[in-house]
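Why predict the complex rather than its parts? Because the way molecules touch one another can change local conformation, and only a joint prediction can capture that. The input here totals 341 residues.
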Amino acid sequence: MEKEFLKVIHDYQKIIYKICRVYRDSREDQEDLFQEIVYQLWKSYPNFKRESKVSSWIYRIALNTAIAIYRKSKILIDYYQAFPEHIHPSDEKTISENEERLFWALRKLNDSEKAVISLYLEEFNYQEIAEITGLSESNVGVRLNRIKNKLKEILK
Amino acid sequence: MELNDLKSGWQNAGGAFKSEANLQRMIKVTNHPSLKRIRTKLIVETIGLVLFLFVYYDWFDGDKKPFYANLVLVVGLLLYIFNDVIGYISIIRPIMESNLKLSIQNYLIRIKRLSVFSLVISFLYSISIIIFFTSVINFTKEKGLILVGIIVVLFQLIFLSFRIWNKWIENLKQQVKDFNLDEEK
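Output of the joint prediction:
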């Protein structure tokens, strides 16, 4: 079972990586969260019946862990706000800079908004997002519109 | 950056950074980041308190204290160790429910219970120490001041613990509130 689990996590680790980057600011906190999520996934793996997609299961556990577990206090230094010209790269800049900007924008949202938009960006449909989050489908739609507008404002 | 760019950016982000061997290390409880810290604290505190239980009778005149004072101290120390163990076990338990909203609601209940339990135990532990050291003692001004100092330190530690729990609980309450937003209308 361990081997099978490791194969699954290895193949889907991009999801965990992205959740960590959205929910934690520093590299160290992201690493800790990554490890915490892998551990929680391992603990819940025996109960995973494969009735849902692997990605849905990983998202459910990963988001849960990112939102619920205790977060260390941090000194708030928002480098991005302090030096806006350095982190609003033009469209011709490198992919990694765009990626950085994407996660920077997503980190501006609150935790529940981060969960909904992450699932949307991963191409889950409204019904799947509703199942994972526990929200109603109509609420998912309303929230997504609100989040999209918020992101447009952030990225202006 | 348009919203469609966000979608493609999201899907292209990340990679296979961790090897299977690396991931394997992460599922071992001995390598877990926060559990490692809690386990170290648990081991150090347990050893310290057990050692104290062995020596307090001679070093702190346990034989001259009444039976109730000895009993209260031993029970207080054992409760403290028990509290650490319960906290550790509770954190090891995975967070899983059918959906995110329900999970966070249940996790909030779990953490609230744990915080009350932990704070009550800390309070009882502090009281047990005070009872032991103040039983059969002729109070002088100096001894009184030392006692006040001990009480202040113990209750400050409880207050700090309360603040940490409270911060966590308030954060979880906010999450529950955010997930219920619009649903109740």
